[in-house]
Amino acid sequence: MNKLMNMLLIVLLLPASGLAETLMLSDAQIKKMQVTTTRLSNNVNGFSRQYSAEVTVPNDQTQMVSMPQHGLVNALKVSTGQDVKKGQVIAQISSAELVGLQGEYLQAKTKLILASKTAARDKALSEEGIIPQRRYIESKSAQEALNTEVLQKKQALQFAGMSAQSIRDLNSASQMQSAINIVAPISGQVVAQHAKVGDRLDAGLPLYQIAQLNPLWVEMNVPIEEAANLAKGLTVTIPKTNASGHVIAILRSVNKATQTLQVRAEINQGAETLSLGQFVDVAVLINAQSDYLQIPKSALVRNGNQSFIFKRIKNGFEIVPVTLINEDNQYALVQAKLSAGDFVASKGLAALKGSWLGLGGE
Question: For the chain, N or C: smaller number of CB within 10 Å?
Answer without folding.
Answer: N
